[in-house]
């Protein structure tokens, strides 16, 4: 059977690690509120000299080295970001392509918010059925640059970071992506957005700063509904039960969302990998950053069955069932 597998994965986190107590020095918030409402303690924030592409490139260089794949071998670079280097052209994928010298690749950005890595894996799988060449899937997010740092309801939630994965044809037809579900419920397109595009700017003299807006409660309600739904559907489609699944790796938005999804599914929380406490919500980078974290902790073994679930603006969502 033709399958596509993740041959290597790396992440990059900016050096500056900020605790909740650092935020409460300038913002009307507290460590207790943030921890009890989100589970977040720390987030990494990019330095002035960094950009979404520079973070992505750091992760990409590491994964190329780890897997021994030369940049010229890449057939495609799929890059997910909510915070492109440029708004909107050229694509950040092309910026990364140029920096690493991947002259035989096609560069393409994915706009699927926090579901972007899940989408990227499936798009890579589809493309590789036709062009059987290595594909790089990158997720890089710098939400600190589009956050209103006076809006305590959103600014405490996000962190910066990047990750990159090399996808190859599976060596044994067993390991790899078994199935993905990609969905979008566009009736929720207004509950999470970054203003500043051509719809909101009426002339070239407008200079609307890009700022994230979120109706947190609506996002929360949506997330706790779709998380169990995606997991259940992927298991059902493949004749699996929760006992067959080794790990569920959800988008790390908020501990309470994961807790609530586990309750609804009747699944022990220990099935879910959770590291939102250390990195906050890094949008589409959160799932691959979690996978790297799991590898570092020795939690991922060959043959493990894992389900990823991403959800975010759009409202886009989906999941991948992967045999590691
Ligand atoms: N510190 C202290 N108090 C705060 C803070 C803060 N940082 N933020 C809000 N509050 C206050 C509010 O002002 C409010 O006070 P009031 O009752 O006096 O008006 C009170 O806390 C409760 O506020 P709520 O907004 O009702 O808090 P809630 O319990 O709903 O939690 C939260 C808010 C954490 C944002 C929650 O709605 C949530 O997690 N939503 C999902 C968010 C999410 O995951 N978004 C990302 C999706 S990913 C993507 O695509 C980018």
Give a written overview of the molecule:
It is built from ten helices and 13 strands. Strand 12 (305-312) and strand 13 (316-323) form a beta hairpin. The strands form four sheets. Strands 1-7-6-4-5 form a five-stranded mixed sheet, with helices on both faces. It has a four-stranded mixed sheet with strand order 8-13-12-11, sandwiched between helices. The chain folds into two domains: 4-169, Thiolase/Chalcone synthase (Peroxisomal Thiolase, Chain A, domain 1, 3-Layer(aba) Sandwich), CATH 3.40.47; 176-200 and 207-323, Peroxisomal Thiolase, Chain A, domain 1. The two termini are 16 Å apart. The mean pLDDT is 95. It has helices at 20-23, 31-38, 52-67, 92-100, 116-130, 152-155, 216-237, 255-265, 276-279, 286-296, and strands at residues 4-12, 16-19, 42-45, 76-80, 106-110, 135-142, 160-169, 176-184, 192-195, 211-214, 247-250, 305-312, 316-323. It binds acetyl coenzyme *A. Acetyl coenzyme *A binds at residues 29, 33-34, 37-38, 113-114, 152-153, 156, 192, 214, 216-217, 219-220, 253-254, 281, 283, 312-313. The site of acetyl coenzyme *A (ACO) has 22 residues, from helix 2, helix 6 and helix 7.
């Amino acid at each position: 059977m033709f399958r596509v597998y993740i041959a290597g994965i790396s992440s990059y986190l900016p050096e500056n690690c900020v605790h909740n107590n650092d935020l409460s020095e300038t913002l009307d918030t507290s460590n207790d509120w943030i921890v009890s409402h989100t589970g977040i303690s720390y987030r990494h924030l990019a330095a002035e000299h960094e950009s979404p592409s520079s973070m992505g490139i750091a992760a990409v260089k590491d994964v190329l080295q780890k897997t021994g794949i030369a940049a010229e071998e890449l057939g495609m670079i799929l890059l997910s970001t909510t915070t492109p280097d440029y708004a909107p052209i050229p694509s950040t994928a092309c910026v990364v392509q140029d920096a690493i010298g991947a002259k035989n690749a096609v560069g393409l950005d994915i706009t699927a918010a926090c579901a972007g890595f899940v989408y990227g894996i499936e798009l890579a799988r589809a493309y590789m059925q036709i062009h059987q060449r290595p594909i790089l899937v990158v997720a890089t997010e710098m939400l600190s640059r589009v956050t209103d740092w006076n809006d305590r309801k959103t600014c405490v939630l996000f962190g910066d970071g990047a990750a990159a994965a090399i996808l190859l044809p599976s060596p044994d037809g067993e390991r790899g992506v078994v199935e993905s579900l990609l969905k979008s419920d566009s009736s929720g397109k207004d509950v999470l957005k970054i203003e500043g595009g051509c719809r909101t700017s009426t002339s070239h003299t407008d200079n609307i700063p890009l700022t994230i807006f979120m109706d947190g409660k609506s996002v929360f309600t949506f997330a706790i509904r779709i998380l169990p739904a995606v997991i259940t559907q992927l298991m059902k489609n493949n004749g699996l039960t929760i006992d067959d699944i080794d790990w569920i790796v959800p988008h790390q938005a908020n501990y309470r969302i994961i807790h609530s999804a586990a309750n609804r599914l009747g699944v022990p929380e220990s099935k879910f990998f959770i590291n939102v406490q250390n990195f906050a919500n890094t949008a589409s980078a959160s799932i691959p950053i979690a996978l790297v974290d799991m590898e570092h902790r020795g939690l991922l073994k060959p043959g493990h069955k894992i389900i990823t679930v991403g959800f975010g603006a759009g409202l886009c969502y989906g999941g991948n069932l992967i045999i590691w």
